[in-house]
Structure formats: structure tokens, C-alpha cells
Amino acid sequence: MIGTGILKGMAVTARNFVGSYFEKDRLITVQYPEERTPLAENYRNFPFLIYDTDDAEAGLRCVACKICEKECPPQCIYIIKSEDKKPDYMGKPQFYPAVFDIDISVCMSCQICVEVCPFEAIKMDKVFELSRRERFDALLQRKRELSKSNTYYHSICPTEAAEVDAKLAEAAAKKKPTPPPAAGSAPAAEPTPAPVI
């Protein structure tokens, strides 16, 4: 019958309208900015850089390998590698980004930069209130604005951050050299095989 879809739609609207007086869950409108809906952990908006120590410059995980810059589809990431090296968060001398800019007016939040980063240095943020009056330079996020602590990352994505930290700790443990046995100590006994029955 013609108009059945309209009647079904109006019935849903009327049910939600009347039900909103009795059940708060039926209220769809959020009184923003006083009220905010909680964002899912896998929500993503724009990238940010992670640093591990108290100092954003010294603890930055990024080593300016430029993989994210090459893989970015809209080419909104701009990196200049440093001339010198400095100790990274694990104490190993590394290059660092002298310049790391992301043009968020071009970024499409595809998360490819996060997926290709071998150092877990770039992640997706949940901040979405980034509107500016100026169109161009104000939407260019520089290294200072992009750098956020690992503690902040744990606050917005606790499950993912714990997995990343465990992976980095495991990689650091593999790279750490095992101490040689002390002189005069007996070599470690080989385990005896279980008897075959």
C-alpha cells in the first residue's frame, strides 16, 4: 500500500517522542558542550606524536624515518630529519625530526601513518574541537602541538596503549645483551630429555 513506509517512520518517531519522557536512554539530543557523549576507544580523529619521558623533545619516539610522510595519501605530513643524533627514550643515539608538521585541513584521518610506523611513535587522537578562524596556517599542527605524553595515550586508549608498551618492552628486552657467565662458574646443565615410553 502506498504510504506504508511513511506511517512506519511516523510510528517510530512518535514512540521515541513519548518514550523520551519516561526513559533517558531515548533522549538522542546531547546538550553540547555541557554534555558530551563518551567516545569509543577505537575512535580516531587526527594524528599525534608520543613521547616517553618528561621532556617532549628528548623522549620523542619518532626517529624521522619519513615512512609516514611517504605513505600518507593526501601528503599532509612534512618532516625534516635532524643533522645530528641524540639519545632516544631508550638511550640509543637516533636521528630526530627537526620539523614535523601535519596539515589537518588536508588530513583525512585514514590512520595509514599509524599502521606503517615501526616505532609506535604516531597514534590517532580523539580531539575534534580544532576549528580556527584562519583557514591556512592555524590548521598546520607543528611538532610542539603534536607531541603528547605516553600517559595521555594511556588515558584515551588504555587497552591499545598497554599492548604497545608490552610490545616495546619485549623488543627492548630482546635487544639488551645477555651478560657473559662469570669466570670459574660451571656451564649451565643441559635439560635431560624425558624418557620415551
Secondary structure layout plus pairing:
Blueprint: H1 4-19, E1 47-51, H2 67-71, E2 77-81, E3 86-87, E4 93-94, E5 97-103, H3 112-116, E6 122-124, E7 140-141, H4 143-146, E8 147-149, H5 150-156, H6 158-175
Parallel strand pairs: 1-8
Antiparallel strand pairs: 1-6, 2-5, 3-4, 5-7
Helix pairs in contact: 5-6
Give a verbal description of the structure.
It is a single chain. The chain has 197 residues and is an alpha+beta fold. It has a domain at 47-172: Alpha-Beta Plaits. The chain has helices at 4-19, 67-71, 112-116, 143-146, 150-156, 158-175, and strands spanning 47-51, 77-81, 86-87, 93-94, 97-103, 122-124, 140-141, 147-149. Strand 3 (86-87) and strand 4 form a beta hairpin. Helix 5 packs across helix 6. 16% of the residues are buried.
Distance between the termini: 78 Å
Helix residue percentage:
25-40%
The succession of helices and strands, N to C, reads HEHEEEEHEEHEHH
State the shape: elongated
Radius of gyration: 26 Å
**Portion in strands:** 5-15%
Number of helices: 6
CATH class designation of the domain at 47-172: Alpha Beta
Classification by helices and strands: alpha+beta
Are there runs of 5+ residues with pLDDT below 50, and where? none
The major beta sheet can be summarized as: 3 strands, mixed
Report the mean per-residue pLDDT as an integer.
86
Q: Please give the CATH architecture of the domain at 47-172.
A: 2-Layer Sandwich
The strand line-up of the biggest sheet is 6-1-8
Instruction: Determine the CATH topology of the domain at 47-172.
Output: Alpha-Beta Plaits
- Total strands: 8
